[in-house]
Amino acid sequence: MANSEPMSVLTSSHAAFNGHSMVGALKRVLVCSPRSAGWDQPDRLAAWQKLGFGHEPNLNKAEAQHAALCRELEAIGAEVIDLPASPEMSLDAAYAHDASLATDWGLILMRPGKANRVAEARHQGRWAAELGIPIVGEIEAPGTTEAGDIVWLDEKILLIGQGYRTNKAGIEQIRAILAPKGVEVISAPLPYGPGPSACLHLMSLISLLDEKTALVDLPWLAVETVELVRSRGYRFVEIDHSDRDTLACNVLALGNNRLLAIEENLKTNRRLREAGFDVRTFPGSDICINGSGGPTCLTRPLFRE
């Protein structure tokens, strides 16, 4: 978006959607701007420490950085849809990826392991219905799932990280939804990492860059996950470990060899360029690093070619 004003979802003329590729040319994507997530609401801002933000969010900086993200998305021809505001949502709603899983049959609504985020899935479900995107399933208690833990290795293999945000019961529910459609769901153990209060998703440790390349934080991935991904023919590009705390592994594939990354991660971005990728960047100090959510977290891809 050229400015921070939210785009109306009602301007979309058709319900194009799919979900099994994470690396195809991005054509349609959902975001939730800081204003839509209520970063301008004093009562929501007051919860920043409880939600795990590094410092009190700065609305002006966050909006400018989010607008820069959206301009990069529009520059590659993607339709950018801003989720409407809702009183149910918290600051975390800006990280729109986690509340739903896109599939070729519609959305699966997640049940986030972070309690303040549960309402986001319902809100995205109502929005999808208005836009004509089907809901093919919804995770229920005691299951918990966040889409940041979910990676499509190919159109028929779904890798799901099991940790503090996504539990065994949630993975079993996704398996039950997708198995009749011929999708194999594989569980991947996640490390303890910084502990249960931190946001450590599977996609914090691996991002697919193209059909056979993955960006990885190798020391933090489980051995069985590394062996599984390598057995699928993927080559690895490792992050520079000095960039770990600034979300270096959180990179969004735009398709056609293009990536979107946080500009602060200079060393890792250099590695990606040396690996042959066209790396576009935007500043992420307030919209990404402060809330532990990179460009993949900020976007819910809906359609790729």
Name the descriptors.
305 residues, alpha/beta, three-stranded mixed β-sheet, 7 helices, 23% helix, 23% strand, globular, disordered N terminus
Shape: globular
Radius of gyration: 17 Å
The biggest sheet, with number of strands, parallel, antiparallel or mixed sense and barrel status, is:
3 strands, mixed
Secondary structure category: alpha/beta
The run of helices and strands is EHHEEEHEEEHEEEHEEEHEHE
N- to C-terminal distance: 21 Å
Helix run count: 7
What is the helical fraction, as a range of percent?
10-25%
What's the total number of strands?
15
Beta-strand proportion: 15-25%
Give the overall average pLDDT: 94
Strand numbers in spatial order across the main sheet = 2-1-15
Low-confidence stretches: 1-13
Structural notes for this entry:
By secondary structure, the protein is of the alpha/beta class. It contains seven helices and 15 strands. It has helices spanning 42-45, 59-75, 118-131, 168-178, 223-231, 266-274, 285-289, and strands spanning 26-31, 79-82, 100-103, 106-109, 135-138, 150-154, 157-162, 184-189, 206-210, 213-216, 235-238, 252-255, 258-262, 278-282, 300-304. The strands form five sheets. Strands 2-1-15 form a three-stranded mixed β-sheet, with helices on one face. The longest helix is centred in the N-terminal third of the chain and has 17 residues, at 59-75. The radius of gyration is 17 Å and the shape is globular. The two termini are 21 Å apart.
